Amino acid sequence: MIECDVLVIGGGMAGWFAAIKAREQGLNVLLADKGYVSKSGETIYAGDTAVFDPDAGNDLAAWLEQVDVIGEYMNNRHWNELVFRDSRERLADLRSYGVQFEEKDGRVVRLPHPHANIVLPDTHKFPPTVSEVVHWLPGFPEKVRKHLIKIGVKLKDRFMVTELLLQDGRVAGAIGFSIEGNRVEVIKAKAVVMSAGGGGFRPVGYPTHELTADGHAMAYRAGATITSKEFVSPHSTNPKDPAWPPMYLFFSAGHSAAQPGMYSAPHLFNAEGDEVAARGVAWHGWIDAEYEAHEGRAPLIADLGKRGVLPVSGPGGHGSMFGHATGGIVPVNDDCATEVPGLYAAGDSCGTCFIGANYSGFGFATAHAAATGARAGLGAAAEAKGLGADGGIDEKAVAAATARLLEPLERKGGFTPNWVTQVLQNTLAPYFVLYVKHGDRLQAALSTVEFLRDHIAPKLYARDDHELRLAHETKNMILNAEMKVRSSLARTESRGTHYREDFPGRNDEEWLAWMRLKQEDGRMVTFKQPIPAEWRPDAAKSYEERYPMRLPNEVPGSGAPNAAGEGR
Amino acid sequence: MAIESIDFALCNGCGICVRNCPMDVIRMNRETRKAEIRYQADCMLCGQCLECPEKAIYLKPGWPKPYLLGWG
Q: Is A79 within the bounds of a domain?
């Protein structure tokens, strides 16, 4: 048994900040990660972070409006303001940890949002952007790792936490195992920060396979409320080498801010040679592209001008690649505490609803991870300090958790995690399940997911330590699938990246609300949480003014009365 | 096919690739004291193993499993 004051689970941007801030309070901090801290998670692929700076002329009201309009009012304005206001200090922190940024004359270079100077084809439409980003230089994760070690944060690399341990209704630690050698260990902690990222379904073309919603799943099982799982993170790939990652770099017009006016958004053509009007959500007319495929006019070609021509294929397997800064564990205060006493959430694990229903600004996820990480670290530290000597953890509970952890390894036979993952992908990856959604198809997917949950997951078996990890990840992905499908079914309208073919329009009367879910009597129930009245769009504005991005076959105000709320 | 090979003659057994791989694809062979590809099917082509100081690792853009796309 290992003991610490604060346990941080997951070592990306959020986990770094949580661990550093808690450690700076003089506490014994342990940071556990499935991979090797500085080589794991999603932060390492990020190139920038948004920094709000009033001294640089940034206007808070304008930044908030950007998130409102692009996030389609599903953003949490309180958290927008907190994160924006924190961002300058987090930048200073990162610099003090040794992270280097693009600088000129000793000052960090501030760049406009990559879309601010983009040359748009006439067929494209996205709302104006005012937010700004700064770029760090390569090698930044290694710099932070060195700093973590220097200040005395204990790192537990290649260790997968599988379950939170509760004692008398509060989190008292966690159990997990070393990826190599399957050595089971219990970590006792006075407070735990969950910063294990978001979740996807092992998409082709994006190195996010370790993001299997572990954090959301563990917190859900411990009784936390999860929010906004119906929104997705669309990233297309190319049909020639779908597994080779760099496609999205082309498609997102790169960091055009570095060289304003150099790049233009790609013109998209369908199989009949017609240009696809990219008027839809999520920046690149993503929904328009999906709909072209739906109508039988794929393959699509992106004409990148001087950079050539690129075939485009559907996102497959993402279904919210990692749900950046939108869905996740609902925080109950500004310290990122959750409904589960002793549990804090940060980064993509934390469901602040920061970005809203669309990814509303470059660098927002990293800024959000840094801000929530620091807040969760300080909150967890304060709680740990207040507790004094901690109690034990019930031995029977530990024995039961250990048995659950090792169960796939104990089985003589069953289903391999790789096969189950493929079945899950087959169920969810086709565009017509989580991208162009329909109630009937979601219901069909839910039937399969429930079967996987009830019949297959309990029979997952692992032949060695490597497969033990995969088995637990697969269980978490099945749970994530159920969350995504149920939330998508419940939201009977279209909004942001949630597009319902059977309800092709935003319905402000019914759906200015977040979709929450939690466990009740062992079942997953969905319920609405209304958006505060003062954050709603101005009802005097026309529908088109409130929602400048168009949807296929759009019917303004389409949507059914509350289908959620009664539970299932 | 994802991570393709680790050159046995070039590998110096430093273990950087084992450590860097987020998917636990590479393990150290205790007998030969060299890195080996143990779970190729789980390679996600992040390329972090290419930090190899001996440039002993080869990747290919392919995928060890059937492709599954949203549409195609």
A: yes
